[in-house]
Amino acid sequence: MNSLTRRGFLSSLAALAALAAAPGCADRDALLDAPFTQLGPIAAGQSLTWIDTAAATARVVDVSRATLSTRTVTVGLDPVLSLARNGADEVLVLSRGSRGEPGIAPTPGTLTAIPTGGAAARTYVVGSPFNAVSQTDDGRYAVVHYQPSGTSGRLLFNPNEIAIVDLAAPPSETNPRRRTVRSFGGVPNAVRFSPTMTIQGTPRRLAVVLSDAYVTLLDLTNPTRPEITVRLTLPEDTRAIRPTQLVFDPERSTIYARAEASNDVYALQLVDVTTADASANDFRPSVNQLAAGRNPSDMALIGDAGARRLLVVSPGSRDARVIDARANTTLTVPLDAPANRILLFTAGSPRDATPTPRALLYATGLLTSAVSFLELADLDTRRGQNVETVQLARTVNNALALPERGALMIDHPSTGNGGQLSLLDLTRRTVSPIFAEVPLEGARFDSDRQRLWVAPRGSTRVGYITLSNFSPGEVRLDAPVTAVIPLGGTTPRVVALHDDASGALTVLDATEPQRNTARSVRGFLLASFLDGRTP
Q1: I need a labelling partner for 163 at 20 to 30 A (CA). Which of 180, 260, 512, 521 fits?
Q2: How many whole angstroms separate alpha carbon 294 and alpha carbon 313?
Q3: Rounded CA gap, 153 and 129, in Å?
Q4: Where are the domains positioned within the chain?
Q5: How far is CA 365 from CA 28, 398, 417, in A?
């Protein structure tokens, strides 16, 4: 996000300054004095989109051509959030609208969908000054809501109000659909979405609203039906149980919820119910609490659909647990090193080349330098014999899972000697160091996960690792880099951003990144200053 004043930016343009001071230009003069604050850029397709918050415009920059193609799109007043729409080359812009001023009518909050290919934008009137957007993985639905830490900029607002938007349908009187979810004194912390689940023999998508001590289920397929709220504690229980992770089992229509400050996992099985009222829900959740050890931190489903079980790691218990919710049984697997993350993968091992489902249990942010490989076959009889511990040279700050490449890329705490990264081969179970000047924070995959790109802020070099052979490389540019953004498409590109409020970037070929084929462009955001500002 860049910020300066338009007057300061354009002070050298004497003609424009004279126009701004001319009679009848008071509104334009006020805009020139407004802070120039940008949201973005947001990558979608072969375009980057910046939002000018004071002017309420989006600047869409297409980098696929030798000469940049740019266009300006109007969005709602007071834009506060921009993000890429899942599964589509579109950018979503959430605006809070205006409270109104003397002689100026108030305007409602909106969600604007901007296709990057040049088609007309769609504006969904969500009404309230929301500040958060959650969307399904396919980008079909979005739920617009409030973040608990955000402010509305209004005298009064309802923190449990939401708006459900069908992004595949045009705006209408019923799209978006606004409603208030039931509350037991809390407010939504997050919204998650289920995959397609079969209820009453029909496919459904659910939105799950996470609040302190309870979750709320919304049937997106039948948005007029009432929500279902499930308490995770008794009314007299004052613990701050906060659900943070959901795992869905579509074959059994079951939702597993893990919560902070709880040693249990909550299994919500969606049971069909008979009702003659078409406006009522035709299912109800049956809740079961499953003991998961001390401070469970991650969970994943293992096994075939007919014998599906839940794998949970609990660093406080220094073990892994395999929970069968149907039989209400728990198998405890002791570990030599605590783990708080689970990576499921299918590969061979040093003793068996046959690709088989396996799990890697590891810890980030803990003082441990060992990981555990867990064989998922014959767990009931072998238990701890199915665990192999592999020692790393150093503890783990963060990790990037590359199961399709058979590897885990590990970011270690920085030292003065470099060597911050290493690669864990999931098949051979060996560790190879990669000496680096930068941590994994800020690293970006390209769209087909062929390369991992890094750009230390302030450096003039962009680095990458080719994931097919883990060969590193770098490209020297002419200006310091603030961020690197891979773009997909038939001709993948990588854009390096430079620190210039007027717009500055360098475009690299993602398949053959070389300095002599790079294209650098500056000043492409200047037009957004001038659009609609001169008489």
Answers
A1: 260
A2: 9
A3: 8
A4: 34-180, 183-288, 329-441, 444-535
A5: 51, 7, 20
| DSSP single-letter state for residue 85 | P
Q: What is the pLDDT of residues 217-245, one digit of tens each?
A: 999 999 999 999 999 988 777 777 899 99
More confident residue, 343 or 19: 343
- Answer with the residue of higher pLDDT: 20 or 352: 352
Beta carbons of 460 and 479 less than 8 angstroms apart:
yes
State both tokens at 453: 């790109």
d(CA 90, CA 112): 10
Say whether 444-535 and 34-180 share the same fold: no
Strand, coil or helix: 517: helix
Mean pLDDT of all residues in 21-37: 57
Q: Could you read off the pLDDT of 106-120 as tens digits, one per residue? A: 999 999 999 998 899
Count of alpha carbons within 13 angstroms of residue 403, beta-carbon side: 12
pLDDT at residue 535, as a whole number: 38
Query: In this structure, which topology does domain 34-180 adopt according to CATH?
Result: Methylamine Dehydrogenase; Chain H (2.130.10)
How far from the centroid of its chain's Cα atoms is residue 162's Cα?
19
The contacts of residue 149 (CB under 8 Å, 6+ apart) are none
DSSP string, 361-421: EE-SSSS--EEEEEE-TTHHHHGGGGEEEEE-SS--SEEEEEGGGTEEEEEPPP-TT---E
For residue 33, what are the CA distances in angstroms to 6, 57, 129, 230, 525? Answer: 6, 17, 25, 50, 17
Q: Cα(234)–Cα(285) distance, rounded to whole angstroms?
A: 16
3-state helix vs strand vs coil in the chain, percent to 5: 10, 45, 45
Q: What is the dihedral of CA 197, 201, 202, 207, to 10 degrees?
A: -30
pLDDT, one tens digit per residue, over 425-464 is 999 999 988 766 666 667 888 877 888 898 888 889 999 9
Q: What single DSSP character describes residue 223?
A: T
CA dist., res. 196 & res. 201, Å (int): 12
Integer CA distances (angstroms), 511 to 61, 447, 514, in order: 21, 12, 9
Backbone angles phi, psi at 301, to 5 degrees: -85, 135
Looking at the domain 444-535, which fold is it? Answer: Thrombin, subunit H (2.40.10)
In a 3-state reduction of DSSP, which class is residue 30? helix
* pLDDT for the residue numbered 438: 66
pLDDT of residue 16: 43
